[in-house]
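Input sequence (188 aa), recorded before submission:
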Amino acid sequence: MCFTIPKPKKHILKFNIVEKESKMAEYKTTFNYLLSHKVILNYFFNNLELFYETIITNPDNMQIFMQNCMKAAIDIANNNPDIEPGTPVEKFNMRLFGESVEKGIVSVIIPNCKIPPDSLAIAFPVTRKHARYFTLEKTENPLNGEQDFILGEWTQEADTYKHSNYGIIDTETSYGFPNKVIELVYGT
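Predicted structure, token format:
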């Protein structure tokens, strides 16, 4: 699958990334951003039926899905000097959360979360009727420079994707992100 990468949209919040600029000066986009905000998003929404019939129902298939996304992102990055090169991940850390499979989500840790709006983790509801894609995105408070994480959701609208922001998530525990996703999806 071949597609061009649109320029990242400007965010409403102004991020103070001056001190981090030296790390990313030679690239316009991090590999993490490409993977979590472009490739996984695209693969998920363009293959919803397959994703819910065979991928999310089996941890091995979920691992293969993530590896395929990683390989596609590496290929794109290798052909675009503006994108930071990627490094393969041997095995993605993922886990099922929720009180039951019918009200569960699968959360996956995304490596190399460096600068806003890179993703620390992503999540998918387990059932097809609740198909959604969530990201735990790094952000920086423009008033005090403190690092935070926000819950983002991507939805498909016609030929494009829409991003929603649900605010800051407590990352002090490993359950802050999945619990908030479960609450948004299932209302519990």
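Checked by second reader. The chain is about 30% helix and 25% strand.
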